[in-house]
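Reopening: Palmitoyltransferase still failing for me.
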Amino acid sequence: PPCRVCVLRRDHHCRLLGRCVGFRNYRPFLCLLLHAAGVLLHVSVLLGPALSALLRAHAPLHTAALLLLPWLMLLTGRVSLAQFALAFVTDTCVAGALLCGAGLLFHGMLLLRGQTTWEWARGQHSYDLGPCHNLQAALGPRWVLVWLWPFLASPLPGDGITFQTAADKGLVAS
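Support: Ran it again with your exact input. Result attached.
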């Protein structure tokens, strides 16, 4: 791994956080994606009416340039600093919400399948115990509540080294 640290049940190295995500910190990572996507989407919605009024006041080409190239519009003097700030913050929040949402959907799919990113890339399904068991294995017995508060006491089953497989549970044909 890029960080040169061993992590139990390593899922991936998160460049945004600068650390590996695995057995002990997968739950906070998922909650970070959920809460960040929610907050960024909320801010985008709150800024929507002001941005809409700004965009309606200009021609379509000006509007497209403001949304796609706000820095260029500011540097050429076509928008005020306040208009630039509104467009830039809204663009950043929308892009962040989309990225966090995509990450949440991807890792949610992996969570329900009982896979790590490494296993998904190689098509391995050895640890898929069914959605409910997979949720409990990754988030603990109080998995429904940890989405709201990731620091809630919900001990993870197991030691992070040995895991029950689908074959152990009789979910795979011999």
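DSSP finds seven helices and two strands in the chain. If you still see a failure, please send the error message rather than a screenshot.
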